[in-house]
Amino acid sequence: MEKFAFWDVGRLAAETDNVAIATRRLEPQTEIDFEGQSLKLEHTVLEGHRFAIKPIAEGETLLSWAMPFGRAIRAIKAGDYVCTKSSLETLKARRLSLTLPETANFQDEIVPYQLDEATFKKAEQLSRYQETLSFMGFRRSKERGVGTRNFIVLLGTSSLTGSFVKALEAKFKDKLAAYENLDGVVALAHTEGGTKDDPNNLELVLRTLSGLVIHPNVAAVLCVDRGDEAVNNARLQAYLESHKYPLNEVPHAFMSLTSNFADHLLEAENGVKRWLEPANLIKREEVSASELKIALQCGGSDAFSGVSGNPLAGWVAREVIRYGGAANLAETDELIGAEAYVLKKVKDLPTAKKFLMMVERFKERAAWHGTSAEGNPSGGNKLRGLYNIVLKSIGAAMKKDPELRLDAAIDYGERMLEGGFYFMDSPGNDLESIAGQIASGCNLIFFITGNGSITNFPFVPTIKIVTTSERFKLLEKDMDVNAGAYLDGTPMDEVGKETLDLTVRVVSGE
To answer: Could you tell me which residue, 451 or 187, shows the higher pLDDT?
Structure first.
């Protein structure tokens, strides 16, 4: 039997919670000293899983981040491992050496959010700092903004030309050493728009491609199609012009593949070569941090994502917004159950209504396929302590600092034209979600992970944040920030300032 002080083995997401999160694996008969009482564990509690710190009566709600995520189906004693039928099944299926309860002691519960228009109060955004923060970026036109990188982009307008732009990218692999201000020549290939008939996501595809074409990290862009697809250059150009994207402010060309692959490859290579020197003449200059737009994204989440990693990203995003910049929170299905937190501070009633409409629309679409958002947490999520969609959603929502208000709810890939905190409607898949955030104008990605997932984008830098020190030690060559330092006792302000310093260095070229 081992004995521990609580803060050596556990954390509270909020002081008013009735369950705690284990920061290490705890075996049966472990005793924990919590606020003068001794909690004795009867079952194995894995790292990231929760145990009660006070008695919870049958029918009472379980709280994390001071928000309900389940309801007790029988009395729960202080020290009991809290579990659902689904979480027990997940652990038992993995054939781990664990001492587990025979039956669940709580059931999942999503508390429906009701927007009370009669009592709604709009919130003010945090005041902007009087002092300035700057970084070294690539200044484009006023409408395009500032780049954190300088790339020539080879865009496969439809899925049919992805292999061509990849082959074209390979032609420049070893030819860029002399161009010190050019970060690369990179292919953008995707899976959409290659049919003869209009796809049902035509508007989404054209909006996304348009945002990528005029992105401030793009020094020049070649768009390649075959000409007879549903999504082709003519349609893309028309969309760019009709929706007033600043296409004329980007060096660009449109090319259709109509004959020999090799001949077209040589033609395209010669065309791109003419952009190398002009792109290299663009140099970094000192610009305001108000030009930063951060994509907030997580994947491979664990129980600490909402305690260390996501709050850290939210802390830095808050500071950037106070310097005039913007941040973009996405993944609609991973905010279901966290509506009350997201809307605790919001700009106005239409913004709140639009956000809720997007959440309800996702639920409706899931229902078309005979499923629901409650099935969102993966087996890996449950293994790492995210028992249900509410825990996962509340943790994901912590990328929005509690002091910030929600300024706007925008459609997938819709451009962010001002500073502030945005929600962008998107799926929970990391790659698809990030593509929309980049199309909306994000020039930096914060990617937060619990298990060590890695996600990037071809022409936008990613700062990778991992939630625990133990995981960081395993993956320090792949991860950039150890948010686990906060769990280890370093104040969030200190970890946040270090990460903000890193952010400035990264967007300046590191």
So the answer is: 187
What does the pLDDT average to over 267-284?
A: 98
Mean predicted confidence (pLDDT) in 469-478: 94
In 3D space, the residue among 133, 50, 8, 111 whose CA is nearest the CA of residue 384 turns out to be 50
pLDDT surpasses 80 at 318: yes
Helices (H), 281-421: 310-322, 339-342, 349-368, 379-383, 389-397
Distance CA 180, CA 150 (A): 10
Residue 50, classed as helix, strand or coil, is strand
d(CA 320, CA 156): 33
* Across 270-296, average pLDDT: 98
Residue 381: band (very low, low, confident or very high) from pLDDT cuts 50, 70, 90: confident
Q: How far apart are alpha carbons 315 and 313 in whole angstroms? A: 5
pTM: 0.95
List the one residue out of 510, 509, 507 whose CA is nearest residue 133: 507
pLDDT at position 234: 98
E strand spans, 189-309: 218-225, 252-256, 285-288, 293-299
Supply 248's token pair.
Answer: 């004329």
Q: Tell me, what DSSP letter sits at residue 230?
A: S
Burial of 425 by CB count in 10 Å (0-12 exposed, 13-18 middle, 19+ buried)?
Answer: buried
Per-residue pLDDT tens for 189-231?
999 999 999 999 999 999 999 999 999 999 999 999 999 999 9
* pLDDT recorded at residue 387: 86
Whether the predicted pLDDT of 417 surpasses 90: yes
What's the half-sphere exposure (Cβ side, CA atoms, 13 Å) at 59? 0
Rg (CA), the chain: 25
Q: pLDDT confidence of 188, banded at 50, 70, 90?
A: very high
Give start and end residues of each alpha helix (H) in 281-348.
310-322, 339-342
- Give one DSSP letter per residue of 54-67, joined into a string: S-B-TTPEEEETTE
Query: Which of left, alpha, beta for 324 (phi over 0: left; psi -120 to 50: alpha)?
Result: left
Sign of CA dihedral 244, 217, 138, 319: positive
* Number of helices followed by number of strands (H, E) in the chain: 15, 23
CA 138 vs. chain centroid, Å, equals: 24
Answer yes or no: are the C-beta atoms of 254 and 237 closer than 8 Å. yes
* Residue 70, number of CB atoms within 10 A of its CB: 27
Residues 444-472 as b/e (b if ≥16 CB within 10 A, e otherwise) read: bbbbbbbbbbebebbbbbbbbbbbbbebb
| Closest to 311 measured CA to CA, from 431, 383, 403, 381 | 403
The SS3 assignment for 173 reads coil
Give yes or no for residue 385 having a pLDDT over 90: no
Q: C-alpha 240: how far from its chain's center?
A: 27
Give dist(CA 431, CA 178) in Å, integer. Answer: 32
